[in-house]
Design a protein that fits this description.
globular; 32 strands; 39% helix; 9-stranded mixed beta sheet; alpha/beta
């Protein structure tokens, strides 16, 4: 890729800048769009994922860098570093954008080979143009309300929504030019419109070519219809643009507002917050661009990024497959859990043994079914759950509502500050409160990021607790595309400590002690540091010492320093990281014993696993926490030890499969240049498929044994 020769900021020989590491991660997403081993439609969708990621990067990461510069929070030398970092970010983003445009052009050519064509308004036949105009009038026009820019004092930034797609229109004639902004209404209709087949005169091998036109092009084609009669013009033209805003907002500390009201106000504030990026059609005339910059109040610290004709490629995540099924990833039927399947109720299954589910290979329905059964089970008395991100139509929450109707005591800890899911969580919080669920908003200064569910039953006169501790959200949608692990257990000490976490969230001033769980913010850092230092002491004394990690992000100076120290002592460290990694592996004399890879494929790797050799008596944890300062010190996170030997072996096997991936794994070196792991003459190993096959074999062997 582009990183080794582009980055100026890596003057520190100990750490890689986290923002640039994030760009390296999104560069790996772009590699997936370019990878011819992926089905064609999926490659287009990876462009959408890349674009969506980049939007969030500017809303969060770049906005933070800009604040560092503009608010002058740091000393002069750090201020200068922030400016250089912003320069590097902009430079790399432009280079990635060039690569993006080349891939998109290539994919359009590939689509034509499969009788699919993306056409614009200039390629329409007369019959198609007539149909497009009719479609515009009947389906699109009612959604358009242009913003007229006749007065230069218009505060345009206040009127443009974050990450919406806009067209800047110029009308010229005998009088002075008139300008307007038109929003493409992708919020109410699909951006991709297939033209009727009977109007298509393009044939290939005796077959009609399926043609798709974007809403943008339909609106451009019908601009005259939109403005005719209101303005006197001879010529009219339009160019696309998109604005990205700072995702941060301030929450008032006044006591006369509920937290929900404060969050609602904060979300509205985000919509009006400062812009940090404008992406625009590179063919936009200079005088129009100059006018836009003035209306938006752009400074030298804001990112102005020229691009192709279309903006907001995130919509391509939902690009329709109107061709052969082979143009998408083949379906992976969800696997059954033998442990759940062999019992009548979920509680019987969990009481028999701990159970591991690995999504999306296993069905998320086992969790929703467990909660559904709890909602009417006469023996169930209480249900407690954390809620970070849930589906808009959540079966889980609906079951909790049913539980209240059945007289259960239900407590839900709702994280209102789950970035970009605040509005959905606010709506659910209101609905649950109205239904009688005890809704807790946790600690105002800490995000509740743990994935916990605790169900209490009365069995033979005794109180028995059943717990879920996982790495991912209780979200039916993401459970189909994120890889996550869930542990179901009725281990009494683990369940009691899960109950303690809920108590800590409500009464953080009380003293607590966790002997099994790794709980942030107070207990994670010392526990993890002790586990790393224990391996270091083993290596120092000449004993075997190993650490294996699977995490999304590795961004913490103290942890990195301890890993460097462990490496220098001889600890063998293997890290599978999806996103940011500020640690520099493979540096002679410091990190020789640290190897890092990253796996990107059809599913988003999201599970967190920590493994410590412990002199042969392996300690293994799954957790909701990445190794970042925010996760260790500023959130409520929970990691759970795996005590069941069979489950521990299953997880170790999946880690080993991923470590030997030679199809979708990249080597993370000190330059983060994203080179694929070389296969050589070894058998091809695509870890996500191999893991699916592994659990499928376990399912078959278990069924055969019964």
């Amino acid at each position: 890729m582009v990183f080794a020769e582009l980055i100026h900021t890596v003057s520190d020989t100990n750490y890689f800048p986290r923002e640039l590491s994030w760009l390296a991660f999104n560069g790996r997403v772009l590699q997936e769009a370019a990878d011819e081993r992926n089905p064609l439609i999926e490659r287009l969708r990876f462009l959408g994922i890349y674009s969506n990621n980049m939007d969030e990067f500017f809303r969060v990461r770049v906005a933070d860098v800009k604040r560092r510069i503009l608010l002058k929070k740091y000393h002069a030398n750090e201020q200068e570093d922030a400016e250089q970092l912003l320069h590097d970010i902009q430079h790399i983003v432009l280079k990635l954008g060039e690569r993006f445009n080349k891939i998109y052009d290539d994919l359009q050519q590939e689509l034509r080979k499969y009788n699919i064509e993306l056409i614009d308004n200039f390629k329409l036949t007369d019959a198609q143009a007539q149909w497009v105009r009719s479609f515009y009038r009947s389906e699109i026009q009612r959604h358009l309300s242009p913003i007229i820019l006749s007065a230069e004092e218009v505060k345009l930034a206040k009127h443009l929504e974050d990450n919406a797609t806009y067209l800047m229109v110029e009308m010229t004639g005998a009088n002075k030019a008139e300008y307007a902004i038109v929003q493409v209404p992708t919020d109410v209709m699909s951006r991709f419109v297939e033209l009727p087949l009977h109007l298509n005169k393009s044939k290939k091998k005796g077959r009609f070519r399926r043609q798709i036109i974007l809403l943008d092009d339909i609106i451009v084609h019908c601009l005259k219809d939109l403005f005719d009669g209101f303005f006197d013009f001879c010529e009219i033209q339009a160019f696309s643009l998109k604005l990205t805003r700072d995702a941060e907002y301030n929450i008032s500390d006044t006591l006369d507002q509920s937290l929900i009201d404060k969050m609602s106000k904060g979300i509205k504030q985000r919509l009006k917050s400062e812009p940090v990026r404008m992406v625009y059609d590179a063919h936009m005339p200079e005088h129009m661009l100059k006018m836009l910059k003035k209306l938006l109040g752009y400074s030298s610290y804001d990112s102005l990024i020229p691009g192709g004709k279309y903006r907001n490629f995130k919509d391509f995540i939902g690009f329709p497959n109107i061709g052969h099924p082979s143009l998408e990833f083949p379906a992976m039927p969800v696997l059954k859990s033998p442990e759940f399947e062999r019992h009548t109720t979920s509680f019987e299954a969990i009481r028999t043994s701990d159970i591991l589910l690995y999504y999306p290979y296993h069905s998320f329905n086992y969790f929703t079914e467990w909660v559904r059964q709890a909602s009417f089970d006469p023996k169930v008395t209480t249900i407690k759950m954390t809620m970070y991100r849930v589906a808009k139509n959540s079966r889980v929450i609906n079951s909790l509502l049913d539980a209240v109707r059945n007289g259960k005591q239900v407590t839900v800890v709702v994280e209102l500050k789950a970035r970009f899911d605040e509005e959905n969580n606010i709506n659910w919080a209101r609905r649950m409160t109205e239904a009688g669920i005890e809704v807790i908003f946790g600690l105002q200064t800490l995000k509740i990021h743990s994935k916990l569910c605790l169900i209490t039953r009365q069995e033979k006169g005794k109180t028995v607790k059943f717990a879920h501790i996982g790495t991912g959200n209780f979200n039916e949608k993401t459970a189909r595309i994120y890889t996550d692990m869930s542990l179901f257990t009725c281990h009494s000490e683990l369940c009691d400590e899960v109950d303690q976490v809920f108590e800590f969230i409500q009464y953080s001033y009380k003293p607590f002690q966790f002997n099994h769980l790794i709980v942030s913010p107070t207990w994670s850092r010392p526990k993890l540091c002790a586990l790393i230092e224990r391996e270091t002491s083993f290596a120092t004394s000449g004993r075997k010492a190993e650490i294996t990690l699977k995490i999304n992000n590795l961004v913490d100076e103290q942890i990195n320093n301890l890993l460097y120290k462990a490496s220098m002592a001889g600890v063998k460290i293997r890290i599978i990281v999806r996103g940011m990694c500020t640690l520099l592996p493979g540096v002679k004399g410091r990190s020789d014993n640290i190897q890092v890879i990253s796996v990107l494929d059809r599913f988003l790797e999201h599970a967190r696993v920590y493994v410590f050799n412990n002199g042969g008596d392996t300690d293994l944890y799954i957790s909701s926490a990445d190794w970042m300062t925010r996760n260790l010190d500023q959130r409520v996170e929970v990691g759970v030890p795996i005590y069941d030997a069979a489950i521990k072996q299953q997880i170790m096997t999946t880690l080993d499969i991923q470590w030997h991936d030679n199809v979708k794994a990249r080597i993370i070196d000190k330059d983060q240049s994203n080179h694929y792991v070389k296969r050589g003459n070894k058998r091809s190993i695509r870890s996500q498929q191999e893991i699916y096959d592994y659990f499928a074999q376990l399912q078959q062997s278990t069924q055969a044994g019964t």
